[in-house]
Amino acid sequence: MGKDRKRIIRKKYRQGLIPEGLLEEIHNDIEQYLEKKAETNEKRIKEIIKTRLELGLNITFPESYIKERVSAIYA
Q1: Which of 53, 64, 67, 75 has its CB surrounded by the most CB atoms within 10 Å?
Q2: Where in the sequence is the domain holding 46, given as residue range(s)?
Q3: First-last CA distance in the chain
């Protein structure tokens, strides 16, 4: 996801639509945004697991699957 955004930024930069001085700042903003999304998704995943365990439900799917599904839903 982040690489796609960076690719778009580079393309716009090459087209002359983004000043050189802003390029690094934009990349930093993208990285910060992705880190915040990852933290938010991690919290949601933990909530889902906690709720299922409190309800006495089994968790029969791997955590990587949960992360993938939550990321897809909230991306």
Answers
A1: 67
A2: 1-72
A3: 9
Please give the structure tokens belonging to residue 42.
């991690």
Per-residue pLDDT of the chain (75 residues; tens, 9 = 90+): 456 777 777 787 778 777 777 878 888 888 888 888 888 888 888 888 888 889 988 777 777 887 787 777 765
46: helix, strand or coil: helix
The CA distance from 73 to 75, in Å, is: 6
Q: How many domains does the chain have?
A: 1
Triad 43, 47, 48: Cα angle to 5°: 120
pTM: 0.51
Structure tokens at 59: 């968790």
Q: What span, in angstroms and rounded, lies between the C-alpha atoms of 67 and 38?
A: 9
